[in-house]
Amino acid sequence: MTDALPARRLLLVHAHPDDEVTGTGATMAHYVASGAHVTLVTCTLGEEGEIHVPALSRLAAGEADQLGGYRLVELERACAALGVTDVRLLGGAGRYRDSGMMGLPTNDHPRAFWQADVDEAAAHLVQIMQEIQPQIMITYDENGFYGHPDHIQAHRVAMRAAELAGPAAPEKIYWTAMPLSVLREGMAAFRELDDNPFADVEKVEDLPFGHGDDEIAARLDGTDYYQQKVAAMRAHATQIPDNSWLYGIAGDFGGEFMGVEYFRLVKGERGPGEGPHNWESDLFSGLGADRPVIADAAVR
């Protein structure tokens, strides 16, 4: 199949439906529009998520336990808004269950992703890597960006798969990130919102997901696609309510905050950049010629 794919191939590994939008939606839309092949792997169906649509409240895990199937439909609609057509569920739909927030009894569910054997889960991802042979992979850092067990596990599985995939492994691996300088600007903007999600935060250094500007490798400007990102967010209606602060940011600041996404580079050589921090503006920067297709990339 790989020889029929575009020369540029990007793989993203996320924990739940809706995670793909908030941190990487503009990046996904940007690369789809540029002609790259974008593959999204989602590790769970998000069965333990909150439900912000009252009419659907009985889908919750403690009642009908049907939220996962509904969120799968939301995921498909969100990806359609972004233009992404290659959407996979790790190990197949329902193989791994949403673990819930850290420390909850749901962490111990026998199918919880948090309980998954990392090598077994990574083997499912290796199969996708062998098929797609992506040059770039995006996932979370060791803390899962903010400490959710499924995000942490997605990180572990993605990084282990990259170790096991042999010649099919991505050449560059990025972790989602947020520069402290951008967080400071954002905090000032949030103070003007009625629904300020960080009202109790005194300084940005106290947040679990900020990084120094020198740790950031790439700034992806997807402002031309932020409306698609907003449309994808609205597809996840059970998780992102109409009055969410995210829509406040989208309405007040447009693509300035919603359309620009940042990444740390943890594998591969950093390519040429620009601006005061010399950040890459293209995740494929520095790769040179398009990666040749390996006819038999199976791990031996």
UniProtKB/TrEMBL annotation:
Its EC number is 3.5.1.103. GO terms for biological process: mycothiol biosynthetic process. Zn(2+) binds at residues 16, 19, 151. GO terms for molecular function: N-acetylglucosaminylinositol deacetylase activity; zinc ion binding. Keywords: Hydrolase, Metal-binding, Zinc. It catalyses: 1D-myo-inositol 2-acetamido-2-deoxy-alpha-D-glucopyranoside + H2O = 1D-myo-inositol 2-amino-2-deoxy-alpha-D-glucopyranoside + acetate. Catalyzes the deacetylation of 1D-myo-inositol 2-acetamido-2-deoxy-alpha-D-glucopyranoside (GlcNAc-Ins) in the mycothiol biosynthesis pathway. PANTHER family: 1D-MYO-INOSITOL 2-ACETAMIDO-2-DEOXY-ALPHA-D-GLUCOPYRANOSIDE DEACETYLASE (PTHR12993:SF26), N-ACETYLGLUCOSAMINYL-PHOSPHATIDYLINOSITOL DE-N-ACETYLASE-RELATED (PTHR12993). Belongs to the MshB deacetylase family. This is 1D-myo-inositol 2-acetamido-2-deoxy-alpha-D-glucopyranoside deacetylase. It comes from Paractinoplanes rishiriensis.
